[in-house]
Design brief:
The chain is an alpha/beta fold. The strands form 2 sheets. Strands 3-2-1-4-5-6-7 form a 7-stranded parallel β-sheet, sandwiched between helices. Strands 10-9-8-11-12-13 form a 6-stranded parallel β-sheet, sandwiched between helices. Helix 2 crosses helix 17, helix 9 crosses helix 12 and helix 10 crosses helix 15. The longest helix is centred in the middle third of the chain and has 17 residues. The protein is globular.
Length: 403
């Protein structure tokens, strides 16, 4: 999709690895809000890893909703700041320019899908040397009206004109959100999300057993888990329908929902009651101990409508538990590299999903540890992700491709 590479040249400073020894690289990540979402959590994982490695990188965040989020304390604990600038308020462009000028960022890394076009245009006008558009989903979640198609075309044009790097979390996301010819563009790079697998491998089994008791799960019962916020792609309604079929086949099965369900939680409570499974479903809410939650479970059910590279599936694989998930391209990419992920079409009946789920035998502790170790050696480890991100921020990846 590259037309002319005026944007490759940039008018700001591009930092060499040698210069990083003198002063830290300044990176500004742009999100809507610092809430518990996959993109936000994976970015903080990279931040935490680089800090632990002593990498000369300082990362801050800009929240375009203008509202505080639940992850901001963690940002501050890691030495970062969060700037609240509402993109909907008049004068946003001027305020964002002032922020970039005052803080002297080297990199603006935007995670807001096509709206990144506006952000990177402003960054280019402020001579920010590295301007990254990061696609994390195959869809923007909006309709397909004439206005929306025009908006997408304009934003894609702005990204093409102003991005120095275009990153996606999977091949499919790059092809659907950006271009099928992305390999011809030296700015484009697929970087898989990375996980710190130690968090999943060192979970105390006694804590997981305590959690099961707190949730009222019988010792011998199978516990299925879903991790995800209450957003349309997560398909919570279908999840409950599938679990009703599971419960009919396994009289002791339970389901726990982990994540901030927001306004749909009451609706899901009502649906569970109408399906007759309300005594089998635990609404655990948003939690900071997801590795322990996964260790307490026997498997994950994940019937999403669309995904980029779902962090919850990666987390389940890192924890060594099996996953039954939608047959989506991003999930198939995960299954290429890790075992224990089974894909089913959403066109299959709830009964077919349930038969597949109940046929899975729980993994023993040794099997889980082997699966976790295998995952850690694959392409989704945090070290690889962080190194590739650092290469993007310093312009090294484009230099390698050019060579």
């Amino acid at each position: 999709m590259a037309r002319r590479h005026r944007r490759e040249q940039g008018v700001g400073r591009r930092r060499s690895p040698e210069s990083l020894r003198m002063e830290p690289l300044r990176v500004l990540h742009v999100f809507s809000r610092m809430q518990h979402g996959g993109a936000e959590l994976r970015t903080l994982d990279v931040m935490e890893y680089l800090a632990a490695q002593g990498a000369p990188v300082r990362m801050d965040f800009c929240a375009l909703s203008g509202e505080p989020g639940a992850l901001e304390d963690r940002v501050r604990e890691l030495g970062g700041r969060v700037f609240h600038l509402s993109i909907r308020r008049r004068g946003f462009a001027g305020r964002f320019r002032r922020l970039l000028g005052q803080e002297r960022f080297d990199v603006v890394h935007s995670h807001i899908h096509y709206a990144s076009g506006v952000i990177l245009r402003i960054a280019e006008s402020c001579a920010i040397a590295e301007r990254v558009a990061h696609f994390r989903s195959s869809k923007d979640g909006a309709g397909n009206t004439l206005w929306r198609r025009g908006y997408r075309a304009l934003m894609r044009w702005l990204i093409d004109r102003n991005a120095t790097s275009i990153v996606a979390v999977s091949r499919y996301v790059m092809e659907t959100s950006w271009s099928r010819k992305w390999r011809r563009d030296p700015r484009c790079r697929v970087i898989y999300n990375g996980l710190n697998t130690e968090r999943f491998m060192r979970v105390d089994r006694r804590e997981a057993e305590t959690l099961r008791r707190d949730w009222g799960i019988p010792t011998e019962a199978k516990l299925w888990i879903h991790v995800g916020a209450g957003r349309p792609p997560k398909n919570h309604g279908r999840l409950l329908q599938i679990f009703r079929e599971v419960a009919e086949r396994d009289g002791a099965a339970h389901l726990v929902l982990v994540g901030d369900l927001g306004p749909i939680e009451r609706e899901l409570h009502s649906q569970a009651a109408s399906l007759g499974i309300d005594d089998r479903v635990v609404f655990a809410g948003c939690r900071d101990d997801v590795p322990t939650c996964l260790a307490a479970a026997d498997g994950m059910i994940f019937p999403s409508l669309w995904e980029g590279m779902p962090g919850a599936v990666l987390e389940a694989a890192a924890a060594g538990i099996p996953v039954v998930a939608s047959d989506l391209p991003g999930i198939r990419e995960i299954a290429e590299h890790v075992s224990g992920v089974r894909c089913l079409s959403l066109d299959e009946s709830d009964a077919v999903w349930a038969e597949t789920i109940v046929s899975i035998q729980p993994s023993g502790e040794s099997a889980r540890r082997r699966a976790s170790a295998s995952f850690a050696a694959g392409p989704f480890c945090i070290a690889r992700c962080a190194e590739e991100m650092l290469a993007v921020w310093t312009g090294v990846c484009k230099q390698r491709k050019a060579a």
